[in-house]
Write a structure and sequence with these properties.
Structural class: mainly alpha
Largest sheet: 3 strands, antiparallel
Radius of gyration: 21 Å
Order of helices and strands: HHEHHEEHH
Distance between the termini: 61 Å
């Protein structure tokens, strides 16, 4: 047996596959935390996204809302109906085109959205408890830069991903 010199490989600080695995696991955990945070308010994550988008768009057509959310309009109609039944969203015929519906966030929807946002902030704080405040700010800035780079948040500069 001869002694062979060890093989030395250059290794990046964080292997790409490991980084992807960590990000995916954190994404799943963050999503579960959000769902648990808003569950007591009686809304689903999907309904929360609809309410949030309506808050950004104000009065809009269901078709435009579906497009902004990347959803099929027929799939959105059921969610809108549920939110209308709970007086969280107001729906009326579009004045410009009576065949279409216009939707907007109702006052009760605004109030519920504020409660949901507060619950989500608490869940995010719990997720990031291991970080110092400056590290949280840095993480947010870095994640925002990545999201902007892949156009994950097309309304960058607005509140969509802030």
């Amino acid at each position: 047996m001869t002694d062979k010199p060890p093989i030395v490989c250059e290794v990046s600080t964080v292997a790409s596959a490991e980084l992807s695995s960590i990000l995916a696991a954190l994404g799943r955990d963050a999503t579960a935390r959000v769902r648990r945070a808003i569950r007591p308010l009686g809304i689903t994550a999907h309904q929360y996204l609809v309410l949030t988008q309506l808050a950004d768009l104000d009065l809009t057509s269901q078709t435009a809302l579906a497009s902004a959310l990347g959803l099929d309009p027929s799939n959105l109609a059921t969610t809108i109906s549920e939110l209308v039944d709970r007086d969280l969203v107001d729906r009326c015929r579009d004045g410009a085109d009576r065949r279409r519906y216009a939707v907007t966030l109702a006052p009760a929807g605004v109030k519920l959205l504020r409660k949901a946002d507060a619950a989500i902030v608490t869940s995010e704080r719990d997720l990031l408890v291991a970080l110092e405040p400056s590290q949280r700010d840095q993480l947010h800035a870095l994640l925002r830069r990545i999201a902007d780079g892949v156009e994950l948040c097309p309304t960058a500069g607005g509140e969509a991903c802030d």
